[in-house]
Write a structure and sequence with these properties.
One of its GO terms (molecular function) is rRNA binding. It is a single chain. The chain has a single domain, classed as Dna Ligase, domain 1, CATH 3.30.1490. Strands 4, 5, 6, 7 and 8 form a five-stranded antiparallel sheet that branches. A three-stranded antiparallel sheet has the order 1-3-2, covered by helices on one side. The protein is 25% helix and 30% strand.
C-alpha cells in the first residue's frame, strides 16, 4: 500500500523522463486521471490512455520530447501538498510557477485544474504539484 499515490505518480513520471523512456505505466485512480488530463491539455505530455485491466486499471502516459534536442517538455515536476502538511491557496494568493511559465495543478471544488483556470473560475483549493 502506498501512503501518497500522487507523489508515486510524479516520481514515476520523473524517473521515466530521466531514463528517456517514451511511455510510462502508472496504476490508475480518478485523481491521477484528472492530473493526466491537465498535463495533456497544457502540452506537457504527448498522449495518454486509460486501460481497465484488473480491479484498479492503469494509465499509459506517452512522454513528450523535443524532436531534435531530445529534451523533455517537463523540466521539473514536484509535489507541493503532502499528506503530512497540506497546502491550500485561495483565489487571491494563487501560486505563480516560474512567473507564469509553469503551471500549478490544484484540486478545487470544481475539479482538478491548473492555476490559470482556477483564477478564471474564481476558486481556490489544494495545490497538488508544480510543473514546468
Amino acid at each position: 500500500m502506498n501512503t501518497d499515490p500522487i507523489a508515486d505518480y510524479l516520481t514515476r513520471v520523473r524517473n521515466a523522463i530521466k531514463a528517456n523512456h517514451r511511455v510510462v505505466e502508472i496504476p490508475a485512480s480518478n485523481l491521477k486521471k484528472e492530473i493526466t488530463k491537465v498535463l495533456f491539455d497544457k502540452g506537457y505530455i504527448a498522449n495518454y490512455k486509460f486501460e481497465e485491466n484488473g480491479p484498479q486499471g492503469s494509465i499509459k502516459v506517452a512522454l513528450k520530447y523535443h524532436p531534435i534536442t531530445k529534451v523533455s517538455a517537463i523540466r521539473s515536476i514536484s509535489r507541493v501538498s503532502k499528506p503530512g502538511l497540506r497546502k491550500y491557496a485561495g483565489m487571491e494568493n494563487m501560486p505563480r510557477v516560474l512567473n507564469g511559465l509553469g503551471i500549478a495543478i490544484l484540486s478545487t471544488s470544481k475539479g482538478v485544474m491548473s492555476d490559470k483556470e482556477a483564477r478564471q473560475q474564481n476558486v481556490g483549493g489544494e495545490v497538488l504539484c508544480y510543473v514546468y
